[in-house]
């Protein structure tokens, strides 16, 4: 078996090699050497060695070609992976789903959704004798999610179902994320329900995206419902999920529910972060609950954990608003001074107090 070793030939790992990398090896060892280069992710030498195999009259198999494409993908060389795939296909070399999936993964990892889409279309057309599988579809969905192309994500999902490819948790995580980024809360919730109907427990990423979609659309009851579902699954939500839920409650002016949730999390020793506390403080201020707002300001200052005593512009502006309602002008001035000393950009509330 080929084992890692220092190559005598000084070839660069940052560009394809053209040297006689495999000269010391016979046919069998030469193939093993290329496999070893792929395992070590030495993409430049792997490409050069692959071409050298061909020049010596050896026929690299599909597994070896897939290894080269995967190596290029892991090294973020999606253009070379794409070129290598098309070149080998044009030469009549046998390719399989793994070949296309490796190239699609490389493109998706570098946010190259047009290339990922083209790869998916080629497999759907079947011109290369390869059909798409769940990994091919998921690569496209990942690309579309990162590019916030929610409509394209839904089309790919429907095409996937039509071709009897079974969606998995990764599929729905990407699709829900796309819908959330596109502010399509109805689509996001519909996808979560579809995942549940398929008995696929959506991951925390999908549930978090669903809560965020509910937040952006001002559907606070839905945000609370999803948060409850997360808890029933035995999953511990993170700061982003809690923050989105509290933000939805703030937008709905549900200061009581927001304050109750925030204090419950605090009592359980769960770190809620600056944004969560700011949302609750802002909600109390909007609802003219200035006494509670000032009380909450004190709690935030006394908080433990990584965000202890740290307040952002939203929290301080809300506290200024509470001071204004209570005619505590000295408190307002003190908070304004704190914002300026921290280099914060004053918002409309803070400007109104100046």
TrEMBL record:
Gene3D superfamilies: Tetratricopeptide repeat domain. The lineage of its organism: Eukaryota, Sar, Alveolata, Dinophyceae, Suessiales. PPR repeats lie at residues 133-167. This is Pentatricopeptide repeat-containing protein, chloroplastic. Keywords: Repeat. It comes from the Eukaryota. NCBIfam families: PPR. Coiled coil: none annotated. The keyword Ribonucleoprotein does not apply. It holds the Pfam family PPR.
């Amino acid at each position: 078996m080929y084992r890692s070793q220092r190559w005598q030939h000084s070839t660069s790992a940052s560009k394809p090699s053209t040297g006689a990398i495999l000269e010391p090896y016979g046919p069998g060892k030469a193939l093993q050497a290329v496999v070893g280069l792929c395992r070590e992710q030495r993409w430049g030498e792997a490409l050069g060695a692959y071409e050298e195999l061909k020049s010596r009259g050896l026929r690299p198999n599909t597994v070896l070609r897939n290894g080269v494409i995967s190596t290029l993908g892991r090294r973020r060389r999606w253009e070379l992976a794409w070129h290598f795939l098309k070149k080998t296909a044009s030469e009549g070399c046998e390719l399989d789903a793994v070949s296309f999936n490796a190239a699609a993964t490389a493109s998706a990892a570098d946010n190259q959704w047009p290339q990922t889409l083209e790869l998916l279309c080629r497999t759907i057309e079947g011109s290369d004798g390869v059909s798409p599988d769940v990994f091919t579809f998921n690569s496209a969905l990942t690309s579309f999610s990162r590019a916030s192309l929610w409509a394209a994500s839904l089309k790919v999902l429907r095409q996937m179902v039509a071709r009897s490819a079974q969606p998995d948790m990764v599929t729905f995580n990407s699709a829900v994320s796309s819908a959330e980024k596109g502010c399509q809360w109805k689509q996001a919730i519909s996808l979560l329900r579809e995942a549940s109907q398929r008995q696929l427990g959506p991951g925390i990423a999908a549930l978090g995206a669903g809560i965020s979609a509910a937040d952006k659309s001002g559907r606070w009851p839905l945000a609370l419902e999803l948060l409850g579902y997360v808890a029933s699954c035995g999953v511990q939500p993170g700061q982003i999920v809690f923050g989105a839920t509290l933000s939805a409650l703030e937008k709905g002016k549900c200061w009581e529910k927001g304050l109750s949730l925030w204090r419950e999390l605090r009592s359980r020793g769960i770190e809620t972060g600056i944004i969560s506390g700011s949302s609750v403080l802002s909600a109390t201020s909007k609802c003219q609950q200035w006494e509670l707002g000032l009380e909450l300001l004190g709690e935030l200052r006394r908080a433990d954990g990584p965000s202890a005593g740290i307040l952002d512009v939203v929290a301080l502006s809300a506290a200024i608003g509470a001071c204004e309602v209570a005619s505590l002008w000295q408190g307002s001035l003190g908070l304004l001074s704190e914002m300026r000393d921290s280099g914060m950009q004053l918002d409309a509330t803070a400007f109104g107090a100046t």
